[in-house]
Structures are given as structure tokens and as C-alpha cells.
Amino acid sequence: MIFGRSERGKPPVEPVTLKILVAGGFGVGKTTLVGAVSEIRPLRTEELLTEAGRPVDDLSGVEAKHTTTVAMDFGRITLREDLVLYLFGTPGQERFWFMWDELSEGALGAVVLADTRRLQDCFAAVDYFERRAIPFLVGVNRFDGAPRYPVEDVRQALDLDDHVPLLLCDARDRESVKEVLIGVVEHAMRQGAQRREAVTT
């Protein structure tokens, strides 16, 4: 396990900072997830949904949503004194996807949030990270009243490779989100080690 406490009496070390993306469809809980764990006041770029956006914004299943992220969310969490994660939440609507390339620059890995009521909305994010070989984990956000399915059924529906972790989570709950973030860091480190081993053999 990489997340231990440092030994007492040792001088403080310069923390390693890692960039993690939080992606997924419109209204899946990305802004909520970043806000749930950020130790700083999250930077949000939310705007009110307008009548002009109705023809392009599919609100099915998220009818109560009144705002949308137009650029990014940003937060920070210290997992241990020498390991800090910078979290960048991507915009979910297709017309803002041009931001993804900028946000993904230098990312260690990504969390793709999924909603079982609108599972198809995360296909684009899964495809994006697969094509760019960015390690990612799928977190199924357990909304109140949303259908519950076995993890393997969700994996099959998303056509995920066996090595891609899939976790159930609650984007409102700090401890649940921390488990997801630890999972994506560990997954990305495993992927990196396997790539280095493949190069040297």
C-alpha cells in the first residue's frame, strides 16, 4: 500500500503533486465529487442553464439540474504529507469537450463517473481515455432512487477491459470519494510499472 504515514523525526519532504481528471456525462456528479474532498474552496465555472440551451442539453434523469460546468472544476486533496492530488473536473456537455485536451495534459489518470440511469453518457469519456492510453477508473455514482446493478453487469454494459477498475461510490461522501481517488492512483501506478517493464524486457 502506498498511502502510509511518514515516520516521525524525519525531515519533511517536498510533496509529489499528481493531476487527476474527473470526467463523465452531464449531471453525473463531477462538481459534487470535487467539492466533497477538496481541502480548499473548489474553483467552479458553473453557469445557469438557459432556454437557449434546451435543444442541446438532455436533462432526462436530471431534470432538477439548473447549472452546468462550462470550463472546469478544480480542487486539491492531500492523501498523505508527501502526496497531493490536483483534481480537474471536466465539462460534461459535448459543446464544451474542446476543453478536455487542455485539461488532460500531464494527467496521471482519470475517474470516469457513471450514472446507471444514463449509462450511455459516459461512453465518450471511456473512449477518450482509452484512445489516449490515460489510465482510468470507472466510479458508479449511486444516486438516490437510481437502479442498482451488479458491478459485473455494469462492466459488461460499458464493455470495459478486465484491467479497468470499477467501483461503486457516492460523490457526496468524502470517504467514498477518497477510496475512488486512491484506486485511480494505484491503477495508474500499476499501469506505469507494466509499461516500463515491457520496455525493458
Task: Looking at this protein, list some descriptive labels.
alpha/beta, 26% strand, 7-stranded mixed sheet, globular, 201 residues
Structure commentary:
Belongs to the GPN-loop GTPase family. InterPro entries: Gliding_Motility_GTPase, Gpn, P-loop_NTPase. This is ATP/GTP-binding protein. Helix content is 29%, strand content 26%. It contains five helices and seven strands, in the order E-H-E-E-E-H-E-H-E-H-E-H. A hairpin with a 2-residue loop joins strand 3 (67-80) and strand 4.
The strands making up the biggest β-sheet line up spatially as 2-3-4-1-5-6-7
CA(first)-CA(last) distance = 26 Å
Q: Average pLDDT, to the nearest integer?
A: 84
Query: Roughly what fraction of the amino acids lie in strands?
Result: 25-35%
The number of helical elements comes to 5
* Gyration radius, rounded: 17 Å
Family: Belongs to the GPN-loop GTPase family.
Pfam families: ATP_bind_1 (PF03029)
Keywords: GTP-binding, Hydrolase, Nucleotide-binding
Protein name: ATP/GTP-binding protein
Summarize the structure.
The chain is an alpha/beta fold and 201 residues long. The protein contains 5 helices and 7 strands.
How are the elements arranged and paired?
Blueprint: E1 16-24, H1 30-37, E2 43-48, E3 67-80, E4 83-89, H2 99-104, E5 109-114, H3 123-131, E6 136-141, H4 151-158, E7 166-169, H5 174-200
Keywords: GTP-binding, Hydrolase, Nucleotide-binding
Family: Belongs to the GPN-loop GTPase family.
Organism: Streptomyces thermospinosisporus
